[in-house]
Amino acid sequence: MDWLVLSEEEWVAVRLSLKVATVATLCSLPVGIAVAYLLARGRFWGKSLVNGIVHLPLILPPVVTGFLLLLTFGRRGAVGQFLYDWFAISFSFRWTGAALASAIMGFPLMVRSIRLSMEAVDQKLEEAAGTLGAAPLWVFLTVTLPLTLPGIVAGTILAFAKAMGEFGATITFVSNIPGETQTLSAAIYVLTQVPGGDAGALRLTVVAIVISFAALLASEWLARLAARRVDA
Amino acid sequence: MRLFVEVRQSLGAFHLDASIAADGGVTALFGRSGSGKTSLMRVIAGLARPQWGRVVFDETVLLDTERSIFVPPHKRRFGYVFQEARLFPHLSVRGNLGYGRWFSPPARDREDYDRVVELLGIAPLLDRAPANLSGGERQRVAIGRALLASPQLLLMDEPLASLDEERKGEILPYLERLRNETDIPIVYVSHSVAEVGRLADRVAIMAGGRVAAIGTPSEVLKGKLLSAHERRESGSILAGIVRSVDGQHGLATVAADGLLVAVSDPALHEGQSVRLHIPERDVMIATVMPVGLSALNVFEGVISTLEDEGSGVVRVCIASGDAQIFARVTAFSCERLGLIAGRPVYAVVKSVALAR
Known about the structure:
The structure holds 2 protein chains of 2 kinds. Chain A is mostly helical.
């Protein structure tokens, strides 16, 4: 079973992928909930435009998304330069950039799932909460959000899985630097390009399968748990 | 307390143009579906903003479209019991009951909670999930939830409409206790003559978006304002106190408006104040004291008025004690017995017809 033992470099890639995916998912979750709420309940001019922009990463070639990120969030990009000058935050060629790219790619999946679940929440219950003295923010926190939980769980897991597998946008935006931006997928790709790298690629593939499967099972289990509470 | 509502609203072909003033006690909005009862209630609660309207509670202006005043529902402190219970599915019964207390001033204490739970008989349900409750239980929890938010006014929008007859009978006594034992004013929407007769102090009859009549239940729940079906349900309403109970036979004797009425209801207890709804169609008229009769209530009285409703039916009003008892008889019987105003007669009512 020796061939299953990961080398140090491979471990680094696995750990980096987990870190990037976790940070990307957790940071985009509040934004995802807010945007889903806006799309589910908001009535404003340009709603379909917002909806289109949110879904853009799903339909654009990932390389295009990565290039656009490079143009805006790169050191010389409009946003990137501002963030660096004022907050010393840099995305270019750093793991934070990989997290940003993964977050953007997973965002439509997350928003879609939360929005569907939110639209299914009975607004009559929110009305009832209002008559019991709950201000709109409290109604959202105590009624809407708990009842949206199954969608939030599903959306979070989907976004995490997407972030784990993200390749095109990441490699275009922040390149492929071992230990900094070389995620699991990038590492597998590199290994398949060098002679004798097949064994390493296979090991990482097994890891990828295990992580994905675990995420899937966790989402099923959590969704069932949440649904039981909501539908009960 | 005094509530004043005035609303003008056009929605397609439907025009709502109504104004209602309510003091303490139970004010009923009565009318068939589509008459604007619920729209009016939603304006009172702040769940709907009409094109033109004013809502004033005590001295506080809650809505005035002309001055752009609108107080949102959560600041009005009006409890609302909806037709469907609208319990929160993710909270237990206990959580649902406690929900309003998070947002209400902490003045009310623990005793209040126990009292409401006892009043509505929901103590055994506290740890259950709303999905595992029957329709009647759900509605009781919804009423408790509204009460525990310590409302200044309770709005009840056909709380019994979605229930079958048996469940209605299960909840009505709780509503009567609620009326008798709390001092919260109630606005109650219903299209059932019997329900309104038993609960309301005042009734506003709504038809086609307007208030057609307003008054005490016995004043307004009659005649042309009601549909043929509703008229069959209508009757006289007596308010009284239970004098004695015959547990063995499940019979209670109620002293009401100078009459002693035998009521078949094992749930009544001595000293309880009740309202009796005597359906007109269940009252017989005899010109001589009947004998050998199973009916327990025979009231001696004098015919005060006769109203020919057309289609061969006459509504006879009999003054007996301080009460007015209405009877629906055929024009044929009227003629045969020679019933005219001023004639002494006996009104016969079966105790079973008063079963509650």
